[in-house]
Amino acid sequence: xxxxxxxxxxxxxxxxxxxxxxxxxxxxxxxxxxxxxxxxxxxxxxxxxxxxxxxxxxxxxxxxxxxxxxxxxxxxxxxxxxxxxxxxxxxxxxxxxxxxxxxxxxxxxxxxxxxxxxxxxxxxxxxxxxxxxxxxxxxxxxxxxxxxxxxxxxxxxxxxxxxxxxxxxxxxxxxxxxxxxxxxxxxxxxxxxxxxxxxxxxxxxxxxxxxxxxxxxxxxxxxxxxxxxxxxxxxxxxxxxxxxxxxxxxxxxxxxxxxxxxxxxxxxxxxxxxxxxxxxxxxxxxxxxxxxxxxxxxxxxxxxxxxxxxxxxxxxxxxxxxxxxxxxxxxxxxxxxxxxxxxxxxxxxxxxxxxxxxxxxxxxxxxxxxxxxxxxxxxxxxxxxxxxxxxxxxxxxxxxxxxxxxxxxxxxxxxxxxxxxxxxxxxxxxxxxxxxxxxxxxxxxxxxxxxxxxxxxxxxxxxxxxxxxxxxxxxxxxxxxxxxxxxxxxxxxxxxxx
Length: 498
Fold this sequence. Notes:
Layout: H1 2-14, H2 17-35, H3 41-48, H4 57-82, H5 91-102, H6 106-139, H7 144-161, H8 166-181, E1 183-184, E2 191-192, H9 206-224, H10 243-265, H11 270-285, H12 298-321, H13 327-338, H14 347-350, H15 352-373, H16 377-383, H17 388-407, H18 410-428, H19 434-456, H20 468-497
Antiparallel strand pairs: 1-2
Helix pairs in contact: 1-15, 2-4, 2-15, 3-4, 3-9, 3-13, 4-5, 4-6, 4-12, 4-13, 4-15, 5-6, 5-12, 6-10, 6-12, 6-15, 7-8, 7-19, 7-20, 8-19, 9-17, 9-18, 10-11, 10-12, 11-12, 13-19, 17-18
């Protein structure tokens, strides 16, 4: 009952006109960036981080959550009409959705994606409401060694499961951990890896790194691969949702929801894995398996539901444990930290009104997204016609202005450029950027918890693995890695079949 009462108070806050406008701004921006190929929610949140410092924390986080949810909705539009996913979690949607559009059923594909996203997002947010406080209550009792175990699980799974190569993921993680060590050691007071630069004594700002990797690096990468000439968009054809389409979609929506949410709560589960599993499940359970590969509506409904359910699932470890398991979640953690707020078990106690207003805004944002994506879909298609040179030139300009506004130090612009170039080469050579940001954010926290554990145990290293929770966490890690190997093999077989 306490959760329900707090949620109602959160609605009272989120329903204020000011916060409704912020939620509308967030979901609108999120939908727009989800539609645009090559721009994702992580880049947009990173780009807006410096520009929202004048807002109070509740308003800024409502905007970021709206961007996160909106990006999941918007990505389906380009997948279906352009066969170019706006973000990685929409890749599976393109398999069937684009073929539906080419067959003159684009309207039905867009409708089942939008309605499925709404259904899944709402159910998953209810589950988030019910589970998050209970998990936070348990997490309060965890010791330093237990947190070290959780972070090792996050490090390993994010690095090993994101991207095509575990080795590249681990290399990206190592780079992030190194950047996180730059600055002054809190225990000894000695400077580390600062190269004698005074401004680096306080460390490299997370915001500068996030903007550099996601905005500058991505802009340089996309610019290097720009296609010349206009983009051909398939016209939206056919009826929206007929009785047959409703009958074939509602079960995949529910299945996708209950596949996506639990996977989203697991470190490095995320939307990518859940959409693949949902597609495989629908293909196996389909009454018309011969339509798969030719435009089966189940292949759009299930993965899109799984995509949005996983987005809510990702917020569970983020809010209750302070563990980001996706690139966008890592940037949202940076947003929390920029306001001096640390996500974790004490978040619901120390910042309860803000957290419940944020959760309430997710319900409101889901309704807004349904309204934005069904009647106004033709407007989002127009966004695809923005000339790419203008778009990415604007991104670079806002990245530079926003970075300078963080500390008003010119050295930050030099760091931004260096990180941006590193991000460009990472993207070009297939190194995932999410492990870098996760390592940067969690690295200093992991170092602090390791030191605390060793101080308590008087230097006994076995204390890191002997607590019951830590032992269970490491066992789960072994299981996750084994499952990941199996899923990779199955995905390769599916790709060959498709």
